[in-house]
KIF-binding protein
Amino acid sequence: MASLSSDEWRAICDKFTNAQNLTDVESRKDPDNDPFRSKYKARELLREIYCSLKNFEAGDGEEDSGGESGDQRPKEPPVDGQREDVFGQGFSGDSPAGLRAAKLGAVEYYLGVNHVDTEELSAGQEHLMNCMKLLERCRVSSENVSLFIHVRNQLGILWAGRDETETAQGFLETAESIYQRYMKEVHSCPLHIPIVFFTLSPTSSLRFELAYTHTMYYLAQVYKNLGETERAATYCHSTLQRQLQLNQFSPMEWALNAATLSQYYITKGRYMEGRHCLAAATVISGLAGEVPSEAAAQESETECERREQLRQKRAEIARCWIKYGLNLLQDAKKLLEDNIGELDSDRQEELKRARRREEEEEEKGRKSALLFGSEDTFDSIASLEEKVPCLLPLDFTEARAVFLVGQTYVTQAKEYFQMDGYVTDHIEILQDHSSMFRGLAFFEEDLERRCKMHKRRVDMLEPVCNDLNSQYYLMIRRQMMFELAETYNEMMDLKLTLANRQADTESLDNHTIKKFNSLCSASAKYFQMFLDSLCSPEGKSPEHLEEEVLRPALVARFRVARLHSQLISSVPTMQLDNLNRSLENYKYVVEYCDAHPEAVAAVETELELSREMAGLLPLKINRLKARMAENN
């Protein structure tokens, strides 16, 4: 029976060590004009190792298997739970022949990774599939279970990179099942792949656990690409948890991933989980250390880059907190508003009565949720969570608590995303801040205070909107114009409601009329600015409205019509002018929808009212003209 001498085996071990060093260390020093020099050298050493092991196997009477030729097309990987049977009858130690196959498979694995790293994907796939074929001669055991998982991870990555998502899914789900069954049935620590070249004594399970963590991470991406967002979120959450448990993570990268995951939970209304992710992100980001001072950053390029990265990533986490508070307020508003957009007090009282039961269930929910943190960090995460509500606010006091949390993070985010250099980001933060004021105003019963909240929105948006260059920021300006128009409109309605509580419109004092007309005109101005932005350079309105502006444009026309009819004036000629402009815009909505029937569904309510007003206003205009003629 052929065998390797101790000198031959030592030579193989030395070559493998050199190959690993070339791959992991020396390759980082390769010049830009020869980026794979060290990896090519490592490849030659791995080939030499393969030949030595292959000769030994052939001399020992084993049949030829693997190598660099033959049919290398992958078997159809199992999906949807139909995983390949790689377990045999159990997890007992493998035979000597099986171990030799595993050693050859390990070399094929490293050759495959080498080819993938040097962008030779077909060759990489060939070697990885050779590894799979060799492992088919083995049962999963502590000696080779790590290799079983690593090779399937690599094939999963390779096929995912080709947009063959379901193929990737099959390899990764098999890797997952191998890990889970091994951990269930075997209690010994698995070996790391390179150990087969040196000794069969157990090594740390860290690398094995990291391999499975990578499996979960890749499955999260696969499920996301398949549209299985719930499964993707679950795997992402578990990946983050395992990284903390294994203490193998970059604080800022981990924190950003956790903050990003929070946004998924928020969109699903799962605010407890979203808050937990954000609290963990904030605490873990603190492990990255303090932001270097500006003076220190100026002295060192490295410190300058670190300062910039820390400031940016913490500002991005702050923006995720803003979305948390904003969505909490908006979801509460949707739950509590009646058919005219006001607070439904009966519904409010009903939900308050149910709140006690909800709070009791929250603790149970927390215990069943997948929580982040070790003993060192969990208390800090829990302490931060206690300061932030996760239940939908039901009154002004609760809404204000949510608002103040969001506003704190608005300040933090704006410190980095300033107007000078981050125009789009800065404006989005302003818009979110404005929307939070709107959400808070919904709960305010005092109409004067509510009006002041909307005035805060105008004060933060109007100067920016007017200063923006339309050539470069047209879409953003349109958004801001429309929001300003609606905000002025809400203020006008509030002022009118307040006035009507005190007296009839006919007997409004001059100050109130002037204020009302000012708000009415401001709203009409911004709606008209929005409409003008859709016109050609010659000022001609588009004959066909694109889908993304169809509803906003027709709603703007409807609102302009309504606003002009509401302006209060004692001068008949001005009244006539306002009514004519109102009629003109109502008729535009009707005529456009008649000419474009596909637009009707977008503005059914506005169209119905426009048809009604287009029929009534001519009568009102004629009566006004008749009175004017009599007076003359």
In short: The radius of gyration is 34 Å. DSSP finds 22 helices and no strands in the chain.
